[in-house]
UniProtKB/TrEMBL annotation:
Its cofactor is pyridoxal 5'-phosphate. Belongs to the trans-sulfuration enzymes family. MetZ subfamily. The lineage of its organism: Bacteria, Pseudomonadati, Gemmatimonadota, Longimicrobiia, Gaopeijiales. CDD domains: CGS_like. Homotetramer. The modification N6-(pyridoxal phosphate)lysine is found at K206. Signal peptide: none annotated. Keywords: Amino-acid biosynthesis, Aminotransferase, Methionine biosynthesis, Pyridoxal phosphate, Transferase. Pathway: Amino-acid biosynthesis; L-methionine biosynthesis via de novo pathway; L-homocysteine from O-succinyl-L-homoserine: step 1/1. It catalyses: O-succinyl-L-homoserine + hydrogen sulfide = L-homocysteine + succinate. The keyword Flavoprotein does not apply. Catalyzes the formation of L-homocysteine from O-succinyl-L-homoserine (OSHS) and hydrogen sulfide. This is O-succinylhomoserine sulfhydrylase. One of its GO terms (molecular function) is transaminase activity.
Amino acid sequence: MSDYEPQTRAVRTQAAASRHAEHSVPIYLTSSFTFEDAEEMRATFADEIQRNVYSRFTNPNVAELAEKLCLLEGAEAGHAVASGMSAVFATFAGLLSSGDHIVSCRSVFGSTHTVLTKILRRFGIGHTYVDADDPDSWEAAITGATRMIYLETPTNPALDIIDLEWAGELAARHDLILVVDNCFATPVLQRPLEYGAHLSVHSATKFIDGQGRVVGGAVVGRKDLIDDIFAFCRSTGPALSPFNAWVLSKSLETLALRMERHSENAMALAQALEGVAGVAAVRYPFLDTHPQVDVARRQMSGGGGLLTFKVEGGVEQGRRFLDAVRMSSRTANLGDTRTIVTHPASTTHAKLSEEERQAVGITPGLIRISVGLEDIADIVRDVTRALAASR
Ligand SMILES: *Cc1c(COP(=O)(O)O)cnc(C)c1O
């Protein structure tokens, strides 16, 4: 297998077939694994043999998913877990100790914000937020206690782009672990490890599943770091169900195709929305009007499936738009085959103060669209018709 290209290996990598020689990999829905004899069991528990023992530790389907992700992302090691948030939390908890400090981009996923501000704080792990559009401030935020730089690019929901090559150099200069939440781009469009990131974190729930079925997560990157994260997970238990791992692993086989079409459709919708009455500030990483379009085009091979725009008229106008769509789904997910519309100011980010929302680019009329795989003509019609109907 090793002489094939990464995409081929990601499609063809499978856990071992059973004696039935099935073509699709079986689901190893078992909580534990049996031993030939007392000696094999002793040697396993003494770490003399590596094998499956118990599915909280390892499972063939979970290992297959992690291996495929590693191939796509160019990572030497990886571990798949129960959700994107368990991947984020295990990355912090597996690598940091009380007294350590994280420099994090301010615009992070809502639950990551809660982990940083409310949970890690109780364990004596501090953080300083820095802004994606003010890279000069990042170096000043690094203290003697800083161990990690954490960022998302593109950010959610502002779609800011952070220059990964620059961030990689900053981390190397200060000997810090650089962690990138690569959920929006997926390994198909962006491989942070190639730019000096040490770990890439994923919510597999989003584009990796791609069809809105199961929750899962993963972290891939440098082996010594993954070993520590795995050790944390093994004992604390955010284990991914073998069934979910099987679904997600199958999905990886079509990820490249799907991301290509998500990107194509999102670009077409972004272009169609520019200049539409009542719409301002259409934002998409590959649009010429995006402030970091050059960086996006350098480090991403496609713009991804997410775009945002502002409806004129604020919160009420945003809610009216959401009510006016006929085809698109109103749901708190993204990265689905079906187009999804959300209004962050009245939903996912409603608990933040107006000031906090402004700081992460969430204006009252901001609409986020996760562009799906329907015919682009229907997607454009649904959004433009809803815009006209809600004015
Ligand atoms: C959804 C999401 C997460 C969390 O993933 P879950 O699978 O929901 O736990 C983390 N980061 C980003 C950018 C996300 O969109």
